[in-house]
Amino acid sequence: MSFFDLINPFSYVTPFHADGDAAEESVVVAADAVEAAAVVIEQIEESNADEEETETEEEEEEEEEEEEEEAEDKAPLIKEGCGETLACKSLKHHYDECAARVEDGSSESCAEEFLHFMECVDHCAASKIFAQLK
What we know:
The chain is mainly α.
């Protein structure tokens, strides 16, 4: 490399990579600044593409491991079954009647009926759910 290459306004020297690691110096000499920028952008895109491929492979492996580890949650099925028991059916009936009144234009809130129904379901399901835990 000559002295005139160093002072050429259209040359671009990149002694470091974006990640901060020292690398071999690469000099891009172009007819104009636009061409030099295009070459540098192309080099950066190539290095980013390689990094993305590596990251994508690692993410896929992690997702596969997570899928294998996750167990099916049986709580919603247990709660649904408890909602149909004789003890909770009457409370569900009261809640359904209240919801129908609200749909017809009543300004009341069905929060109390809903909370009573959910308390019954939770009380029924708690022992069954904890029995399923390992």
